[in-house]
Amino acid sequence: MEKMPYYNRELSWVDFNYRVLEEAFKKENPIMERIRFLSITASNLDEFFMVRVAGVMEQVRSKYHVEDLSGLTPQKLLEKLNIKIHEFMEKQYSCLHRSIIPALKKLNISFLTPDEMNEEQLSFLSNYFEKVLFPVLTPLAVDPSRPFPLLANKSLNVAIRLEGNGKPYFAVVQVPSILSRYLELPSHDGGREFILLENLIIYKLEELFEASDIRAACPFRMTRNSDLEIDEGAEDLLAEIQKSIKKRKRGNPVRLELLQKCDPETKSFLLEMIHIRKDNIYELPGPLDLTFLSKFADLSGFEKYCFKPIMPVYPPADFWNYKSIFDAIREKDRMVHHPYESFETVVDFVRQAAEDENVLAIKQTLYRVSGHSPIIAALIRAAENGKQVTVLVELKARFDEENNILWAKKLEEAGCHVIYGLAGLKTHCKILLVVRRDEDCIRRYVHMGTGNYNDSTAKIYTDIGIFTCKEPFGTDASSLFNVLTGYSRPPEYNKMLVAPYELRGFFESMIQRETQNAKDGLPCGITAKVNSLVDPEIISLLYKASQAGVPIHLIVRGICCLIPGLPGISEHIEVISIIGQLLEHSRIFRFENGGTPKIYMGSADWMSRNLDRRIELVFPIEDEDLKQRAFGILDLMLNDNINARMMTNTTEYHHIDRRGKVPCNCQREFSRLAQEAVAKLEIPERDQPLKPILSPDFDR
Questions:
Q1: What's the predicted TM-score (pTM) here?
Q2: What Cα–Cα distance (Å) separates residue 563 from each residue in 185, 542, 566, 651, 677?
Q3: Which is catalytic among the residues 97, 275, 338, 428?
């Protein structure tokens, strides 16, 4: 491939996390939401180290020197990442100490240390330590007879420098993750006061080491390489993944976090025990592991300091006044836009199928599901009712492997046919097929979506689902499941576009067609909403389309390796990223097609892994009403000037200039539109209008 402008994906990811951090700094956001955004940046960074940074470190270790498309060798990239992440983490703690903690204090909310407490609070601490904390703690001495313990990935620990019998030694105490990281203290002035668990442990160290003198104590935390190495050729994929999950706990350290005020001897001890590059040591002002803040933000009594909730309507407009979901779908194709319209509709689809005596079979793919999944419960119920239930559970869904193994076993026990995915390919497509005996024929009802069948994330991720019983889609769905569950050769699909077999070719041909239309003077244009844009071939074709004069609008939430606005290369390309109250997750693709626009949705991003190494599904929207609605969804997002940031040709992101424009928060607007659509359908009954029903899963 010819040399082209290409921004490194790892560096682009750090930029994305910066955009999330900006939301934590924003004073117009409610304080608890700012805390939540800060927590998200910490959680994101953990995973980034465990997978992406770990991968770069492995390349450096194996002396791999080849430059990537951005011109960086692994060594050069690691150097840039170290600088950029150190700067980022400094910014995180600046946000915490200079912005968030002062804002909390104004609301009379504080984190205290023992020396700031009154007698009542200290007595409360002692009681909690004695009754709850002490029985859980396990102090571990480190000496010639007792080696340094194998510490769990991401666990928070305290290193203690001690002296006993005139000899120095060290010990480690793990901060128990089974207990809350923070403890609320008694307070009488109307405020709320807390202490962090590690500070309580340090305060009570003398009760753990009575025979020793405590010289110093320092919290620390280690992040390990957690990318699974799976032998795809293994006879038993389930056993292979279970084995790999255990290895994850022993992965090489890729980051060590410790307090800035850690004394030199304790620091030297940790560096001796944990073999890690100096560049990957992060000395922080504390507290370590800011992920705990997400739970803190959910504390009762703080609701008024949170975003006004997005209230999902239930049932949504497309299913209003239908007792049977099947009746509604037979009439016409239906669309549900989550979370503005409740995911409960999808759950209802499976529940009705499970109980309907005319339903013969249910087939579904599952990538990520919740801990108490109503979808799983409905599938189990269907199997118990004698339906033929087939479920593909993707065991290789990163960091959900254990959860998925658990569900797979429960489904099998209930009598469902469970498939564990295909060798060498992750199954990432979102599809559900119900085969039903209707009065006139055997009919296939299909749900296709952009997001997981996960009722928890469906409350905070934006996704779209389409229901249809059109025969071409039903035939395609059956063919796809036959490929997933057997040895069927990939067919020629009527409507669906499936990776890795034809999706890349489809996207490339559609971009090339727009390029040719521009040259021929025909209407042209590309609008795409994806989570990530990384694939070099797609980027190269988008550059060529721009050079031909095709107007290209890209909504890319996270990683974007394409550089927009470069004269003569990408000057007709605009990239925006939307970061707001909800996580943008839907994938939508519009092509102007010479004046007859086509629009598609699906599970695939424009990344090589999605196009070449996963089972992905993209599908057209053909119903005219739904088509117009889908166009409107893209248009509204492109008009956002609250949550949107524009990417410049220097790879920086800036907020949209709102001067002279009506403020537009697309997420709030989608919520309003969903409510309005239902309000228009309200019908008088006994002189009383029916009101939109909020989803039963909406947490008031």
A1: 0.91
A2: 51, 11, 7, 6, 38
A3: 428
